[in-house]
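User: For a reading group we're discussing how well predicted structures match intuition. Take DNA polymerase III subunit gamma/tau. Before you show the prediction, I'll give you the sequence so everyone sees exactly what went in.
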Amino acid sequence: MLVLKYRPMFFKEILGQKHIISFFKNCIKKKKFHNNFLFIGNSGIGKTSLSRILAKSMNCKNLNINEPCNKCKSCISINKDKCIDYLEINAASNRGINKIKNIFKYINYIPINKYKIYMIDEIHMLTNYAFDSILKIIEEPPKYVKFIFATTKPKKIPKTILSRCFIFNLKLIKNKEIFKNISKILKIENIKYEKNAIKLIAKNSLGSMRNALNLTEQLMYNKNNIIKIKNVQNILGILDFYYLINILKIIIIKKDKNKLIFFLNNLKKLNFSYSLFLKDLSVLLQKIFFIKEIKKNIYKKIKYEKDILKISRNIKKEEILILYQILLQGIKELRLDIDKYSCFCMVILKMFIFYPIIYNFY
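Assistant: Thanks. Here is the predicted 3D structure of DNA polymerase III subunit gamma/tau, as structure tokens, for the group to look at:
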């Protein structure tokens, strides 16, 4: 698995979290660590990896510029999930008070290394009684015990726990960083790829390196051993940019109801995500709005550049804003509707019906 094979081993390999890494490097330099840390952030952005690197750094005997060596016994044992002094606990499967008490039964035993570190992932899943049990421990822990908590839902954690932690909000990883990392990995794996395909993977990974790597690994099993943009579009259920441009041209420039219905009927034959289509359409409208606002083409040398400029000349800023609101409302409605295709068509037809009214009003 690419996720495990290319898991960060050093602080410098963690993407998008420079503000947190600089803090921990200073802690390592001064050899001072707070008792409790809480990492908050979406899935797949590096909470567990950061925890492991921090734990290695705390007990590493051969630190190199405030980075773990990954060669000493302590580092190797953590990398192999065999370290007695570093325990990872998934709160989703160990949420009751009895399981938590059982885990912390040996907390007063002196560690082999300098620190004994407990990492509790998805801590928000614990029961109230389990939280009460942890609170007693983290209030006055032994000097050699450190806690690292991770969560995607901090609001579910009691304030009594939060107030006793150093809290770090991990940022979503930027598309550029994901693109660079995926490109680097594919070169190592000797897999050919189209740049636009990797850009699309990065864009749809929702700021998560794990999501990006899982999708990349899925695409690596293609017969031709090449990752193409068409393969990414098929897996994600995304249509080519051509369809977005054409639907706006029919609504804004041609204003042809029959062509629009014909176009929607043809779309029914294709296998794609209706919600992603509406989201991409809203992003396209946003780009057109920026062109009108700045009065300059800021999207040069992109596919369908001439069509985008033509659409921008035939629509007013006020009209774009209202069509954009229709799309946002449509995305919400699509989540609740059982018949996704019908709901999708109604959103597009609503844009068509409202557009002439907007046009005449202004």
